[in-house]
Design goal:
The complex is a heterotrimer of chains A (295), B (225) and C (827). With 295 residues, chain A is of the alpha+beta class. Chain A has helices at 43-51, 107-111, 138-142, 164-168, 174-178, 189-206, 249-255, 257-280; strands at 8-11, 29-34, 78-85, 91-98, 118-121, 126-128, 149-151, 156-158, 184-188, 213-215, 225-229. With 827 residues, chain C is an alpha/beta fold. In chain C, a hairpin with a 2-residue loop joins strand 28 and strand 29 (772-780). Classes of the chains: A alpha+beta (295), B mainly alpha (225), C alpha/beta (827).
Chain lengths: 295, 225, 827
């Protein structure tokens, strides 16, 4: 969704710098998901579906309350249900709202070759611009959270927009609005961090969750969606939330050093053959002489 | 097939009978491979760097480029396999090649007179052939991975990353070979380009560059003695 | 709810049992989360399954379905043993000090005094207080003056009886019955009663429940145990406390308030019985007289019953209700038998009920024993279904197993009327917090769909026309009904709401100011109601909702000056816009709040009135030294720990009985395992299973947050969220049977079978009940044979309630959906 009025910090596949790079006129926005007060009601799933206008998608029961195994191109918001046994044998039902994390250093954007197909606004929202998307799927490899999904019909990639259209108009994202327990919050990154830390402290001090903490992974520069977890040392238990997400090193190497190595090699190759030609010139065919054998 | 024959002389064009170096089938396959490779190269370069993304505009824009790249890549791979079928025996390394490769500096310096005679393809050509053959396999496998990247389950996501690494790596290596191949086929070895267009070379050309092959097709074994 | 949803945010401790608010009342559950977040409130969840509510709890205990009284009784014992009780509250605000008549016997053997085995009923005459003075003994009913012992030491005082009754509910016994290990039980009991540590009265605990308690053959008694525990701990009437029923439908509270049950009139007035040959006979029978220690005072608000009843009759019959004809009392039906839900179906099955109007419910799917209901409908002459979707009831003839040939032999005429959905009509809904909230229609009904009230009005007018034309045995009750709506065919719900509120028909005097109001205006409250025919009121507890000030139900004031979530200007709460019932009990006997940080109401010495942030639920000028009891709706003015006389059919104290179908014998008294007054139904369809027949797995039924009963299977989004029927079962049971998650399983009860996919989960553990390994499985009820899921052809196409037994609670007649026996096998 194109949000021209939001200033842009980063642009995918773009030659030169982005217009909003280095500008900090706007606050970083952030979604706070307090998994300790999530009741798995899926109101956020439905709100997402309805706001974005996606319709019925056939699902199959798969031994879980979870609607489908992972997010889909037209299902951006999915609560992941995980039965978890604590060390003392007590049960936990971990419910985590899975969606785009809106990384400060987005792997999708780094991997994307199409000019302007992925932008990061200066409020931190990472948004796909389907008009520019070429459907190559590089973002899939770039994302450490398994979020971008391909629409076979339009051959474009889709994911959560953090309701950039709503945020642009001063509204909270649809999922936030629908949450009945208030486990979802929306505000500036700073405020959300503070709220999250306060909640984590409360969990540590009053609820016996010694390892409660805030998930805001540094490996991707922090995220625009942060979680309060009962056990921040084991995010994997929450439906495969990576404990130390980073842009895959392959993607980093590819988009970083390899690009230079490759460029140098290619340019070097062209220069090399040119120099060769200038120095040695073309190979001449030996003129035909009488007789048919080499001297 | 690799058996070339002396053609009957053309009535007026040549003073002496020309030698058929590439059959029509060989030329067609070469050019299918060549053109599809160039297409994939151009579009691939567009995806490679933002500073080259304009290349995509030349072939209809990014989305169109993205659409055709894997399909033409398949055609490329198919033609490479066809070439493999045609040339694989010709491309086996021989003792002559080994001898030739030891004297490659003469070849680079255009001091071909110091080179031992070789057959239909020299060692460099053979290397390039195998480079493209194995490169195509890697590009195909990794390309499929990239094409259907979402179908690779998250638990096997290392395959996604491997696909990226292999595709890019294989592409870069073939590009290196390709630059040399194009340079040699056009600028460096005069007559080479004509041969892959018209299929014919002059006896002198054949004698100069591929003496053993020349001897074989003309029945002249004197050079060996 | 004694309190309200918003009020839950004021609590320090929550016990959630027999309910799953996170899934079934997610919006209300917000306030439980608020309490946790803002007050560090603790949450204890006790449930047969680890639910999504349990996921947010501080402590979860897995209980065997139907063992709730044992658990709560154990907590009562723990509280008494450890002196974690509200001493002053108990002595002054409950009947703990009241002395019970000699001859009353506790159920050591499972039976209270007075049991008659032949009729399976109790003679309850010994279930009474001891009258003060020699004269009181002779008369039936409660004695006007009761002997009491404020030291609570008298061996026959209620407190000592309570202590004795629950002394048997030791932690060991609790473990044997409930399957909750002793240490876990003690942890929960310690935590819950910790709010009364050292007798400190500041903290408050709340109990939330839903139909997981109600739907048992001892359901009413479970809720009573909870109420007793709350009285013992002094939690009733206080912000953040109370006993809170979370209702399962948006307007089920309203349905009950408006007399949507066979044995009450609107406003919980009792229905007349055949013996009530005159209005006086009726009001004499149904109007209680105060019963209390001599030095105390009792408001006994039900002493106003005649005013409420006459005003109701005036609302029904208007000018046709005159003093001379007993205000048309004879027009009202006299209820001579049990017409509760299961009885209606039973009578239809037996052929005596010939037709049924089914509006706003899906009787076949609701069950219990859906198959019996289907068989019953086959025998009916006609069926009218008003619904927004084609449902199982209107298509009972097409249920799985009925052949084309058999269909031809079903002669029931089915009229399917397309009704309006909730968003297509205006009107009010009364939520669990007793708030009457007005809503506007969002969209017009589609196609030929009509408003429910229009359908009912048009049927009524046609019937009245026929009576007027053709007469009949007794046409007056029909022809004389007031129908003063501006468009009789399409009564506006605003007019109906005004009629329910009531108005002055003659000159009425303000009870406070003695100012006289002329006939005509809407009444400002039920204190204005009269028994002389000068007022009309459709439901006294709703009086004050639509006054001369307008429609108070539509108010949307968000001011909350106290910060206690009272929101006095949001909608309107019955009675009299009170948000917390019995709020006098939030103060000590001297009239000052137990907790100064949560001041609800208090006695103002200066004005000599009760005042506060909420409307006092009390006589506003009753000085604390008069010692009027805060529970103004009981004749005693107190909270009943001992429920005397006919309050309950099965005992004045709750006792643990086994569910009707149980895998074990009652550990307290194996010879009297089940509730002695619960009766089987006797048609061939009423079958009950035993472990001997191989039914050895406990099955409980419930709703999921993703669906709403049997409607949302017609809505693609809900279907997407939970697409197929499943049965939740422990991993261990699945392993034993070789079942993997997602495979089809067949669940069979004595009634019928159900096929669904296995949901193999660690959230239900096998239980050890008195040394016996017992499995429990859980069955969501949402799927059936009519809906987009079903039409997709991959559904079980049977109803979960084909499994549930037709056996009911003896007080509320609620069927036992929670805990019956089944067999589980691979399908």
């Amino acid at each position: 969704m194109s949000q021209a009025t939001l200033n842009i910090r980063r642009i995918s596949g773009h030659a030169g710098s982005a217009p909003g790079a280095g500008v900090e006129r706007e606050e970083q926005v952030c979604k706070l998901v307090d998994t300790t007060t999530c009741i798995g009601c899926k109101a956020c799933e439905v709100a997402c579906l309805e706001w974005n206008g996606y319709s019925f998608r056939e699902t199959v029961f798969q031994n879980s309350y979870q609607t489908m195994p992972e997010t889909a191109w037209n299902y951006w918001n999915l609560i992941k249900f995980n039965e978890h046994e604590r060390e003392d044998g007590s049960m936990m039902l971990l419910m985590r709202k899975d969606q785009c994390m809106h990384c400060a250093e987005p792997g999708c954007l780094a991997a994307c070759p199409a000019d302007g197909a992925i932008v990061q606004y200066i409020n931190g929202i990472v948004d796909f611009q389907q008009d520019h998307c070429i459907g190559c799927g590089y973002c899939v490899s770039g994302c450490p959270f398994n979020i971008p999904k391909f629409n076979q019909h339009t051959e474009k990639m889709f994911k959560c927009t953090l309701c950039s259209d709503r945020v642009n108009e001063g509204l909270e994202p649809a999922c936030i609005k629908s949450c009945p327990t208030g486990c979802l919050h929306f505000g500036t990154k700073e405020d959300m961090k503070e709220l999250a830390e306060a909640r984590a402290r409360q969990l540590r001090e009053h609820s016996g969750f010694d390892k409660a903490g805030v998930y805001d992974p540094a490996g991707v520069g922090g995220t625009g969606v942060i979680y309060v977890l009962h056990d921040v040392t084991n995010p994997e238990a929450y439906g495969g939330l990576p404990s130390n997400p980073r842009i895959p090193w392959v993607v980093k190497f590819w988009k970083g050093p390899l690009k230079w190595i490759g460029n140098l090699a290619m340019i070097g190759g062209v220069i090399g053959v040119t120099l060769h030609y200038l120095r040695f010139g073309p190979k001449q065919v030996e003129p035909e002489r009488d007789g048919n054998s080499r001297p | 097939m690799s058996t070339s024959q002396v053609m009957p002389p053309r009535p007026t064009a040549y003073r002496r009978p020309a030698i058929l170096r590439y059959t029509l089938s060989e030329r067609v396959h070469h050019w299918i491979a060549g053109l599809t490779y160039v297409y994939c190269l151009v579009t691939g370069l567009a995806f490679w760097s933002p500073y080259l993304f304009w290349l995509a505009a030349l072939v209809g824009g990014g989305a169109v480029a993205r659409f055709w790249h894997p399909w033409l890549g398949l055609v490329f791979t198919a033609s490479v396999f066809w070439m493999y079928k045609m040339w694989r025996r010709d491309m086996l390394t021989t003792d002559a090649d080994r001898a030739w490769s030891k004297s490659i500096q003469y070849y680079i310096r255009n001091e071909d007179q110091n080179l031992p005679p070789i057959g239909r393809f020299n060692y460099g050509q053979k290397l390039y052939f195998w480079l493209i053959f194995y490169g195509a396999i890697l590009l195909l496998l990794s390309g499929i991975g990239l094409w259907f990247v979402e179908s690779i389950p998250w638990s096997l996501r290392w395959l996604r990353y491997l696909a990226v690494a292999v595709h890019v790596g294989a592409a870069l290596i073939t590009i290196g070979g390709f630059i040399i191949h194009v340079y040699m086929g056009t600028a460096m070895v005069r007559g080479g380009f004509t041969s892959i267009i018209r299929g014919e070379v002059s006896p002198e050309w054949a004698k100069t560059h591929h003496r053993l092959w020349y001897d074989k097709v003309t029945g002249d074994a004197s050079g060996r003695k | 709810m004694t309190n309200g949803y918003v009020d839950i945010k004021n609590t320090d401790m929550m016990l959630i049992m027999g309910g799953n608010p996170a899934e079934n009342h997610p919006c209300g559950f917000k306030w439980a989360i608020e309490a946790k977040r803002n007050r560090n409130a603790k949450m204890i969840v006790v449930d047969p399954r680890f639910t999504r509510t349990a996921a947010t709890a501080d402590l979860f205990l897995q209980i065997r379905a139907g063992a709730d009284i044992a658990f709560l009784g154990g907590v009562i014992r723990y509280a008494i043993e450890n002196n974690r009780i509200a001493q002053d509250y108990l002595a002054n605000y409950t009947n703990a000090a009241f002395i019970v008549k000699e001859g009353f016997k506790l159920p050591d053997d499972g039976l209270y005094s007075g049991f008659d085995a032949a009729s399976q009923t109790y003679d309850k005459s010994t279930w009474n207080y001891e009258a003060a003075g020699p004269a009181g003994e002779a008369k039936p009913g409660l004695p006007p003056n009761v002997n009491s012992d404020m030291t609570l030491q008298h061996p026959r005082c209620v407190f000592q009886l309570l202590k004795t009754q629950y002394s048997r509910y030791t932690p060991e016994m609790v473990e044997r019955i409930t399957g909750i290990p002793k240490d876990q039980f003690l942890k929960a009991a310690e935590l819950y009663t910790s709010i009364r540590k050292d007798g400190d009265m500041k903290k408050v605990a709340t109990i939330m429940y839903a139909v997981g308690w109600t739907q048992h053959t001892f359901g009413t008694q479970i809720i009573r145990t909870a109420a007793m525990l709350q009285l013992l701990l002094g939690n009733v009437g206080r912000a953040g406390g109370g006993v809170n029923a979370l209702r399962g439908h948006s307007n089920i509270q309203g349905a009950t308030d408006m007399g949507g049950v066979f044995d009450i009139w609107p406003g919980y007035l009792k229905v007349p019985a055949p013996a009530d040959t005159s209005l006086k006979a009726y009001t004499d029978r149904t109007t209680p007289t105060a019963s209390k220690p001599a030095e105390w005072d009792s408001f006994n608000y039900w002493s106003n019953t005649p005013r409420f009843a006459v005003s109701y009759l005036k609302a029904m019959y208007g000018d046709a209700a005159t003093k001379e004809n007993d205000f048309a009392f004879d027009y009202m039906p006299k209820v001579d038998r049990n017409y509760s839900w299961t009885q209606l179906w039973d009578q239809m099955y037996r052929g005596s009920v010939k037709g049924l109007f089914a509006f706003g419910m899906n009787g076949v799917a609701i069950g219990p024993d859906s198959q019996k209901n289907i068989e019953a409908l086959k025998k009916a002459d006609w069926l009218v279904v008003g619904e927004i979707y084609p449902d199982e009831t209107s298509e009972f003839w097409n249920s799985p197993g009925i052949t084309k040939e058999e269909m031809k032999s079903i002669n029931t005429t089915v009229y399917r009327l397309a009704c309006a959905g909730f968003a297509e009509k205006d009107g009010s809904m009364t939520n669990s917090a007793r708030w009457l909230q007005w809503k506007n229609a969002a969209v017009p009904p589609p196609g030929q769909a009509r408003l429910d009230q229009d359908i009912v009005a048009q049927v009524f007018l046609k019937v009245r026309e026929l009576y007027a034309k053709e007469g009949g045995k007794f046409p007056d009750p029909i022809t004389h009904v007031t129908w003063a709506y501006s468009d009789p065919q399409h009564p506006s719900l605003g007019e109906v709401a005004k009629e329910i509120n009531g108005k002055a028909l003659g000159d009425v005097t303000d009870p406070k100011t003695q100012q006289v109001t002329k006939a005509g205006p809407q009444l400002p409250g039920f204190a204005w109601l009269r028994d002389d025919g000068t007022t009309s009121c459709g439901n006294w507890i709703y009086c004050g909702s639509w006054t001369e000030a307008g429609n108070l139900l539509a108010r949307r004031g968000t001011e909350d000056p106290s910060g206690l979530g009272v929101y006095p200007n949001w909608a309107w709460s019955w009675p009299a816009n009170r948000r917390v019932l019995y709020n006098r009990a939030s103060c000590d006997p001297a009239g000052q709040p137990w907790d100064p940080t949560r001041k609800q109401i208090w006695w103002n010495e200066k004005t000599q009135l009760w005042t506060g942030v909420d409307v006092p639920d009390f006589k506003p000028d009753s000085h604390p030294k008069d010692h009027m009891g805060p529970f103004i709706m009981t004749p005693e003015g107190i909270g009943r720990i001992f429920a005397p006389l006919a309050a309950f059919a099965d005992g004045p104290f709750p006792e643990h009985y086994e569910p009707f179908e149980s895998p074990v014998q009652n550990a307290l008294h194996p010879a009297q395992s089940k509730n002695p007054v619960v009766k089987k139904l006797t048609t061939p369809a009423d079958k009950y299973g035993t472990t001997a027949e191989g039914f050895n797995v406990i099955c409980t039924t419930y709703r999921l947050t993703e669906h709403y009963h049997y409607w949302t299977k017609n809505n693609p989004v809900n279907v997407q969220l939970i697409p197929e029927p499943f049965v939740e079962m422990p991993v261990e049971l699945a392993d034993e049977l070789g079942i993997r998650g997602g495979e089809l399983v067949k669940i069979t009860s004595a009634r019928s079978y159900y096929i669904a996919k296995a949901f193999v989960t660690k959230r239900i553990k096998p239980m050890n009940i008195d040394g016996k390994k017992v499995y429990q499985v859980g069955l969501p009820i949402h799927q059936g044979f009519r809906g987009i899921q079903e039409d997709a052809g991959r559904n079980a196409r049977t109803l979960a309630n084909r499994l549930s037994p037709t056996v009911v609670d003896p007080n509320a007649y609620t069927p036992e959906f929670k805990g019956f026996l089944v067999k589980v096998e691979k399908a």
